[in-house]
Fold:
Amino acid sequence: MEEERRWPGTGRRGEPGSDLEVAHYEMRTLLESGIALIVDRYAYFGVSFTAAKEGFTIDWCKNTDRDLPQHDLGLYLHLTSEAAAMLGTFGKERYEKTDMQLRVAKNFQLLKDSYWQDINAEKTEDDLEIRDIVFNFIPTVKDKPMLKLWEDK
Structure:
C-alpha cells in the first residue's frame, strides 16, 4: 500500500523541536522500520541551489545535512536551457534564470555520486518511466544498512 506524506519545510535544522528536526527524525524512524521513502528535492537540491548563490561553497552548504540518511537512488532529471526556456512558465520563478540554472546544474554535477541516475527530462511524463525505475529499485535495497549522507562512502 502506498501512502503519501508531506513533511513541513519550515523551521531551522538544529533547533530542538523544529519542523525540520521532527521531519528528519520521522524519516529515519520510517526507514529503520523498513518503509521505503520517495523524497522529492532531498538535500542535494538545497545544496546545489544555495551554493549557486554568491558567497556560499558546496562544502559549507553540506554541513547542516551530514547526519541525514544517504539516499539509495537519486534521479537527476535534466533539461537543456533551450528546452527549459520552451516551457511556458520558465523564468517566472526567482531562480529560473539561465545563468542561475547553469550554476545549479554545475553544482549537481559536482555532487553527483554512484547512487545517481541521469534522466533526460525532454520527454513526456509517461516516457520518463520514473515510477517504474523507482518501484523496480526499491526491492534491491531492502536489507542494505542505512548510511549517512556525505559521510559513509
Summary: Strands lie at 74-78, 116-120.
